[in-house]
Amino acid sequence: xxxxxxxxxxxxxxxxxxxxxxxxxxxxxxxxxxxxxxxxxxxxxxxxxxxxxxxxxxxxxxxxxxxxxxxxxxxxxxxxxxxxxxxxxxxxxxxxxxxxxxxxxxxxxxxxxxxxxxxxxxxxxxxxxxxxxxxxxxxxxxxxxxxxxxxxxxxxxxxxxxxxxxxxxxxxxxxxxxxxxxxxxxxxxxxxxxxxxxxxxxxxxxxxxxxxxxxxxxxxxxxxxxxxxxxxxxxxxxxxxxxxxxxxxxxxxxxxxxxxxxxxxxxxxxxxxxxxxxxxxxxxxxxxxxxxxxxxxxxxxxxxxxxxxxxxxxxxxxxxxxxxxxxxxxxxxxxxxxxxxxxxxxxxxxxxxxxxxxxxxxxxxxxxx
Length: 369
Ligand code: BGC
What we know:
The protein is α/β, with parallel strands linked by helices. The protein folds into 2 domains: 24-144 and 302-344, Response regulator (Rossmann fold, 3-Layer(aba) Sandwich), CATH 3.40.50; 152-301 and 348-368, Rossmann fold, CATH 3.40.50.2300. Helix content is 44%, strand content 14%. Helix 12 links the parallel strand 8 (251-253) and strand 9 (276-277). Helix 5 (60-75) packs parallel to helix 14, helix 6 packs parallel to helix 7 (118-126) and helix 8 crosses helix 9. The structure holds beta-D-glucopyranose.
């Protein structure tokens, strides 16, 4: 009975799709197991252990999330285990396995490598644990109940649009020379970011408005392993030395602030004029740079909002209610379409920073200096 209830909760949680994803034999097979009380049928204990497996500290948003999950889950009455996996995939796999052994009822996963957690998450699902992919999709496994994230493709669309607007604003009439940077190939987000941006930029490359002077335009050519600043900077150093000794560089598509600042460092070291550089995450150093007129844009994905939404989903699961889902189409993880709750990202430039950060006590003051 308990397992049946959990299966139904999961089905409700993940929306109708979950029902088709869950085979009838699984559901029938579990009906004989126990005779639980009505209280237990509500979901799980209000003081349950909740695991949160975060990746490496590759940007400020992850560091903020740690504190917010610890505080928010504790305040909601749960027992949180929030961990980073700074040494990589194996550490994250071990942490998730330990969360299963410690009896977590929900595991929230910000994957380092979205394709390497199948075994651990399947063990979690077997144990009746609900799995929520957080910010990054978990791929190639059925053992993920839902996805809470900002709309990643839209982030890319906003970045591509900002690059074009910045070029027109700061570099006069085109055509323009640009370079492209993408995120880490093991992060499922890196592709939608890049594809969203290219949906805007590719037509402008095709009509000659934009030229990628290095010729490096595929995701594989422009990806940045591990989202590491030094990798992006090294690639930009090489590109600048190889293609820009006598040529002006007008713009750089960067998928986040850390890599955008690395690109700006490479350009400064090469003694070139500041190009229009995009970003993401609204990191403090980048917001300062935007207000000084250096970095052109960033994206605001309010970490407080995504953590609050994730905790709200956990509370719904705890109560045995249906999770909140607003997208059942966009995130195919290779095995199924993962029901998602997508939040809205905002583009930020010097012109609208004060307005976008109005409710952010850390960032708003930076717009007033
Ligand atoms: C996040 C970005 C972040 C990047 C590197 C991505 O998965 O969505 O916000 O910049 O990871 O940490």
